[in-house]
Write a structure and sequence with these properties.
Ribosomal Protein L9, domain 1; 2 domains; single chain; 163 residues; SLD5_C; flat
């Protein structure tokens, strides 16, 4: 887009519209990346633990840059805790498990999704004990609001997309 703008005439109305579109795209991308970084900062021990426990052929949920950021963030957090608080504690309290200290992501939260590939017999967990479990079929192109842990494997496989 930027190369096209350089070739365009200076006074053309299309140039300003294309400039606005480029700025909008930059804003959306940086907002998306900021959101990912906030989630990594909030759940960093769990993200790194999941990264360690993934199978050999399984794709990573983090980009190499995000993985490096998460590792550095964890190292900096541990160093900060040791220097500021833990060194002043009794020896038996100087170790802290960040995995136990940091809250886990809420996999029971509901998410919006778009179905990319038809899925049949998806087991939906009941909201209360009085309701029975039932299965649903997800039609290609349909949109749903479902608990994340129900469709997490489908998100990982690329069969559904979160919106």
């Amino acid at each position: 887009q930027e190369a096209n703008l350089k070739r365009a005439k200076k006074g053309d109305l299309k140039v300003s519209i294309h400039h606005m579109e480029i700025e909008r795209i930059r804003y959306v991308l940086s907002s998306y990346l900021r959101c990912r970084l906030v989630k990594i900062e909030k759940f960093f021990p769990h993200v790194l633990e999941k990264e360690k426990s993934r199978a050999e052929g399984e794709p990573s949920i983090l980009s190499p840059e995000e993985f490096a950021f998460a590792k550095e963030y964890m190292a900096n957090t541990e160093t900060y805790l040791k220097n500021v608080a833990l060194k002043h504690m009794p020896p038996n309290l100087q170790k802290v498990s960040l995995l136990k200290s940091v809250p886990k992501p809420n996999l029971d939260s509901f998410v919006f999704l778009r179905v990319l590939e038809r899925q049949e017999n998806i087991l939906v967990e009941p909201e209360t004990d009085e309701q029975r479990e039932y299965t649903i079929d997800l039609e290609e192109g349909s949109q749903h609001l479902i608990r994340y842990k129900t469709i997490a494997p489908l998100v990982a496989s690329g069969a559904v997309q979160l919106i």
